[in-house]
Every structure is written in structure tokens, then in C-alpha cells.
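Budget justification, computational time. The allocation requested in the original proposal was used primarily to generate C-alpha cells for proteins on the priority list. As evidence of use, we reproduce two of the resulting records. The first is shown immediately below.
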Amino acid sequence: MADIDQVRYNDKVKLKDGGQGPIKYIGEVVGKEGVYYGIDLVKGGGKNNGTVKGQTYFKTKGGKKNGKFIRKSAIKKCTKTEHSVEFTVGDAVKVKSKGN
């Protein structure tokens, strides 16, 4: 289990509301202040497909509305995976993914 202070792209998280899934975005979201975490939920209810107000931050599997943007305080448990990537907010990052 990773320290919640060390949340990385592609870490698997369990949320306090019971949702679960990998982190697919870390950063700012249009119309909101601060850092948000975009989760592609495999368990629990999502609110979007990774797009907010016309801006796409990540793509959910199948383009379904199983995406959710949360604050770090909503994370109950964080687990590093073999696909986890560490970077600093503000870094220019281009991710090539085959469904991860």
C-alpha cells in the first residue's frame, strides 16, 4: 500500500465512498481550484467520462460515465501498481496508453 501523501498516476485507489479504480489524471480542473484526481471507476458510480465543461482530462474505458474527479481527502487507500508513474504537478507529461 502506498502512502496517501504519495499518490501517483495509475495507482489503484479505494475511496471513502466505496468507489475504486485507477488514477488517470492529477492536476487542475477548469472551474475549480486546487489539485484534483481523475479516477476511472471500476466500482462505484461515476459522474463523467473524464471530460468537464468541454475539456477532456482523461478517457474512461468505453467512454462510459464512470469517471470522477476527487480531492486527495476522498482517498481511503492507495496502492502502487506496476503501471504507476510518479511526476510532479506542472510537469509536461505525455502518456501513451493501451487501455491502462
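The second record produced under the same allocation is shown here.
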Amino acid sequence: PDEQRAALASRRERALEAQGLLSHASTVEVLGREQVTPYLMNMSDDAHLAGCLLYYLYPGKVTAVGSAAGSAIPIAGLGIPPHLCSLVNRDNVRVSLHRSEWTQR
């Protein structure tokens, strides 16, 4: 049972990383508990799904959102452009949103 649990946890970690996500354990390693980094969290009517996905916005880094394979925050679905928008964490206080020209139509 413990080996099976560890194997499932490892598969979960790999699946999260493939989607550009960090698990809770990884966020503690990467950011530390005291860090005040802004993030986006998923919302859902299903209590089991709400709050499961965290996308951290790292200071000074452009975070791409869209359907493109290289997007830091991948969104799939009909009508979702490859580059929906970009988010920039200026200083852990201000976050800028930049829409692509396609989304401004």
C-alpha cells in the first residue's frame, strides 16, 4: 500500500508539472512559507475541485495564458486563442494584465 501510494503521488506530481502547476509541497520548497507571491486559484462549484490549481505569478516574469503549448497557464477549449493574455507581477503588490490584440476585437 505504501509503495502504491508513493507511485500515485509521483504520477500526480508529474501530471501537475506537465500542466505548469506546482503541488503544495513544491510551493513550500520553491517559495517558502513566508513568501507573499500573488497567484491565481481555480474556482469550481464542486468542493473537491475548488482551490486545487494554483498558478504563482513570479516577480518580474511574464506569465502567458492561452491554448499554446508553451503557456505557463494553459487553457483549452473552443475559441481560446494561443495567447489570450499575459500577466506580470511587478513587485508582489501590483499585477498587470496585458490582452493580446486578438482578444481586443
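A brief technical remark on that second record: The first strand starts at residue 39 and ends at 41.
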